[in-house]
């Protein structure tokens, strides 16, 4: 069979192919805007005088511009808004946006020219009907125009604030490490109410719950850095959904970095004058490390390593280096967030040399000695001299020694007597 590919309105785009089967493929390996359009094809039996078929139904090739990155959207003030309050919706985009479009519930409601990297849509006096879900998009002025993806959606709640504020707390209350779990607890003054939790400055994390009693729990099971911040909550009656409480006092969730590991190399005791390195390791990048020694604030050292391991060498170890060390690290943000301290590791330094009189070492104290001031044998001691020991064991030893000496003297005297009798 012989196949012919045609593009509507472009006679230069004709392509044909002859093959043994009944399927022809016409690849376009680098698609451009010129390739967009309607295509159709024909076939014929490969004879000397081919007879062509009717053209196929056309198929349209649409070449679309790649969309730009989606903009971000924020609302001020965040949370629940009282009627009559002024609301600002900001749409921000790092793109070629020259026109911004605001959507409510997926329907375009307003547009404006971008100023710099974004623009603001204002609601001077919020009404109940202004509540809803909003998003925005950007569009370039180029032809054909480039549209961005829609932003994340943000919810605006406009209600009367009449009920007393609820209480809010964290469990555990002292913060949580990365990857840990925490629960935000909101307690109202009435039973069977609806609770709403929001994070200050980020209305995208709003959550609601309808518990059976007066307590709602919002768990965060795998805490990330984004979860840190201030939280507040509201409640409303299920019978009157447009009347809400005043916001609770905010509570701050502090996300702590996990504690690092600390090790010594070499491990075990280190001799004075030797070398040792204290290694601190974390699951982080670009962190700042702080090494501390228990009871010695002057021994602190700071390091900014390239990776996630910091090495603190002690090249000439002395007795003053002995002790317990720990380390922690922080982000380089402003303000920084510090991790928990590592578990302590102990650096043990073996017995040192007394440098006041070279060549002499400190002898261990013995019973009756003055203690550490006593010198080893061969040196004059400053301690009180030993008293003679007249114990029974020593008397026996002295008697045996005297007996041996007496026997030797008698043997020598007998030998001398025989020698003289022999005429020598």
Describe what is shown at a glance:
The protein is mainly β.
Can you characterise this structure?
This protein has 424 residues and is mainly beta. Helix content is 7%, strand content 40%. The protein has four domains: 2-61, Immunoglobulins (Immunoglobulin-like), CATH 2.60.40; 72-158, Immunoglobulins (Immunoglobulin-like), CATH 2.60.40; 161-256, Immunoglobulin-like, CATH 2.60.40; 261-347, Immunoglobulin-like. It is built from one helix and 30 strands. The chain has a five-stranded mixed beta sheet, with no helix packed on it.
What is the multimeric organization of the chains shown? Answer: single chain
Rg value:
45 Å
Could you name the ranges where pLDDT drops below 50 across 5 or more consecutive residues? 352-390
Number of strands: 30
Question: What name is given to the CATH topology of the largest domain?
Answer: Immunoglobulin-like
**Distinct helical segment count:** 1
What is the terminal-to-terminal distance? 146 Å
Query: Which percent range fits the helix content?
Result: under 10%
- CATH superfamily annotation of the largest domain: Immunoglobulins
How many discrete structural domains? 4
CATH architecture of the largest domain: Sandwich
Mean pLDDT: 81
What key attributes describe this structure?
single chain; 424 residues; mainly beta; Immunoglobulin-like; 4 domains; five-stranded mixed beta sheet; four-stranded antiparallel beta sheet; 30 strands; elongated
């Amino acid at each position: 069979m012989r196949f012919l590919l045609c593009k509507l309105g472009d006679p230069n785009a004709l392509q044909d192919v002859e093959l043994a089967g009944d399927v022809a493929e016409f690849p376009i390996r680098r698609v451009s805007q010129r390739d967009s359009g309607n295509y159709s094809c024909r076939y014929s039996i490969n004879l000397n005088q081919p007879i062509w078929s009717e053209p196929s139904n056309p198929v349209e090739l649409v070449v679309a511009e790649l969309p730009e990155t989606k903009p971000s959207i924020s609302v001020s003030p965040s949370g629940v808004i009282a009627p009559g309050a002024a609301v600002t919706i900001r749409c921000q985009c790092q793109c070629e946006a020259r026109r911004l479009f605001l959507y409510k519930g997926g329907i375009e409601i307003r547009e404006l020219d971008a100023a710099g990297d974004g623009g603001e849509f204002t609601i001077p006096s919020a009404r109940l009907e202004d509540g809803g879900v909003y998003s925005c998009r950007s569009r370039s002025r180029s032809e054909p125009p480039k549209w961005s993806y829609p932003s994340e959606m943000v919810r605006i709640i406009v209600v009367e604030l009449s009920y007393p504020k609820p209480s809010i707390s964290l469990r555990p209350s002292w913060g949580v490490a990365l990857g840990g779990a925490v629960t935000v607890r909101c307690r109202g003054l009435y039973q069977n109410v609806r609770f709403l939790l929001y994070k200050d400055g980020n209305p995208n994390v709003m959550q609601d719950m309808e518990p059976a009693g007066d307590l709602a729990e919002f768990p965060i099971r795998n805490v990330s850095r984004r979860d840190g911040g201030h939280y507040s909550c509201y409640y409303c009656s299920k019978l009157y959904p447009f009347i809400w409480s005043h916001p609770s006092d905010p509570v701050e969730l502090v996300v702590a970095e996990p504690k690092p590991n600390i090790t010594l190399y070499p491990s075990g005791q280190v001799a004075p004058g030797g070398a040792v390195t204290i290694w601190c390791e974390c699951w982080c990048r670009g962190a700042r490390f702080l090494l501390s020694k228990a009871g010695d604030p002057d021994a602190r050292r700071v390091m900014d390593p390239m990776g996630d391991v910091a090495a603190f060498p002690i090249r000439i170890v002395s007795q003053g280096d002995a002790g317990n060390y720990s380390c922690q690290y922080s982000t380089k943000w402003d303000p920084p967030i510090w991790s928990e301290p590592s578990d302590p590791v102990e650096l043990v330094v073996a017995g040192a040399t007394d440098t006041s009189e070279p060549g002499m070492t400190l002898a261990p104290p013995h019973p009756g000695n003055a203690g550490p001031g006593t010198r080893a044998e061969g040196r004059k001691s400053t301690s009180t001299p030993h008293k003679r020991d007249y114990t029974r064991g020593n008397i026996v030893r002295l008697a045996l020694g005297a007996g041996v000496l007496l026997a030797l003297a008698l043997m020598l005297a007998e030998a001398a007597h025989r020698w003289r009798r022999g005429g020598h």
